[in-house]
Amino acid sequence: MSNAVKYHGRKKPYTAIGISRVACVRCGAPSFHQWQICANGGLFLTVCKPCDIELNRIALDFARLPNAAELLEKYKAEQLAS
Predict the structure, then answer these.
(1) Residue 26 is part of which domain span?
(2) Which pTM value belongs to this model?
(3) What is the count of structural domains for the chain?
(4) Residue-wise pLDDT tens for the chain (82 aa)?
């Protein structure tokens, strides 16, 4: 039995067209962005707009930035406009 850790994603960044061809890793919706997660072997994963916004919310909460809510609202507006 192998003790190897399984990683998911790809080593090279996706192109814009490539992102659109892969489903969001979290919810299965069409992807719009990609994330590179160090704990996942540095592989790139794709996410849809709502999941990308949620990832940014989590990161801002983690960083405890004093203006996190303002930054998130600005980011959400930008993403939902594009």
Answers:
(1) 16-81
(2) 0.85
(3) 1
(4) 567 777 889 999 999 999 999 999 999 999 999 999 999 999 999 999 999 999 999 999 999 999 999 999 999 999 989 8
